[in-house]
Amino acid sequence: MRDFAELAHLDTEVLRSLLEAGEAPERVRAAWALALRLGGTIRPDLVQGSLTEPDPGVRRHLVVVLAGYQERPVLATLARQDFDEAVRAVACQYLAMISRPEDAESWRVLDERLEADVSSEVRRAAIAYLPPHTPAFLRSAVAARVGDESLDVRRAVADKLLEWAGLSGEGLSEVLVSRVHHEPDLELRREWVRRACSLGGAQALLEALLDASDETLRFVLALYAAQRVRLPWECLRPFTQRGQPELDAFLMDLLEPGAQAEVDAWLLELALRFWRQSSEEYDGKNSWWAARDALWHLQARLEAGHLREPDAWVSALSRKLWEAIAEARPRALEEHASWCDAPEHGECFDEEWGLDRTMESLSWLASQGDPRPAE
User: Fold this and answer.
1) Which of 72, 168, 312, 367 is most buried (most C-beta within 10 Å)?
2) What is the pTM of this model?
């Protein structure tokens, strides 16, 4: 069988003969050779061939050649009527790529395939190659497929909605944000959250998750922390009301630096909650880590100068926390020993908590002002 380089040197009539009666690979190569040699004059033959060619592989190649001729009506026909899903998919791909804003029929065909085609590959292709000038009704149709049964289609929807959001600067689609709650594929959920962050939509996404489950929120906050996202206290405050130590630990890592007495009070209350627990109330490592991190963050804020003038409430909480730690420290050391494997357990405990320095800081904070009683 002759390769393309050999076919390209054949007489035009021989190429026409191969286009009509050669083996499938020869028909493909003959089509390309004739298109390169004759330009638009071979166009009617290729159009006819695309509609009568029996081999779907050859038809796929003819779609590409005809796209170069801007043959949108033929591509639309193949997208709608070809019995082979791969041909319909390629026709949708190139129809999306070459259609202009005024090509209403092309957009209608893509909308139809997106809605009605049984092939997930066709639905995916009808989405993946849509250009920035896609009309509003088709954008809405794309958003409507965000719950498609096919993972590949849902991924194409996510990619396209995020692409459009980045190009327009309009922020994230509400449809896409809502899918963070419901998308069953873990990796796709991760990708949506990462892309949302890259588009500057981290705060908008989190604000849309006020009613999300703890599991969903934990999933998003963990990804934010891994990407070193920083958010204002006003955005994070509602989530501190859940009283979930694991969530609190993430929220601390996401907090933007700055001097806010409300933040300091939250950190003190979080630590105080742990140090006031009885042994029966102790809820494990998450509570331990959250309280430890709260004291670390409080110490860092103090050293950064954010606590030079603590208000009365912060001073009162500092005093109560100092008293709680002094009373519960022996019990905490014993409980730490129950799951810590370090041979020098006491040193490990002190190194993790840094309580001596913390107690000095709390003593100083408690001495400032005339604190009102802390509950």
Assistant:
1) 72
2) 0.68
